[in-house]
Amino acid sequence: MEELKKMEEYIEVERRELNDMVQYYDLHDHRVLDQSRRVDSILNQYNHLKQALLGTRSSIMGSM
Length: 64
Known about the structure:
Blueprint: H1 2-24, H2 30-62
Helix pairs in contact: 1-2
Pfam families: SpoOE-like
Organism: Paenibacillus wenxiniae
Protein name: Aspartyl-phosphate phosphatase Spo0E family protein
């Protein structure tokens, strides 16, 4: 679960960066779009990890 916590912190850092960029650049600027894609990618990785960890935990709890 420590991995999830680290990823949550990383997601927040990247989201803040995206929000800051929007203050300076147009929403269609390639830098904003690249950062948005980066946040999406990290969120996808986070969701896959969370699902894998919770899936493993659920199967352990189910066998008790």
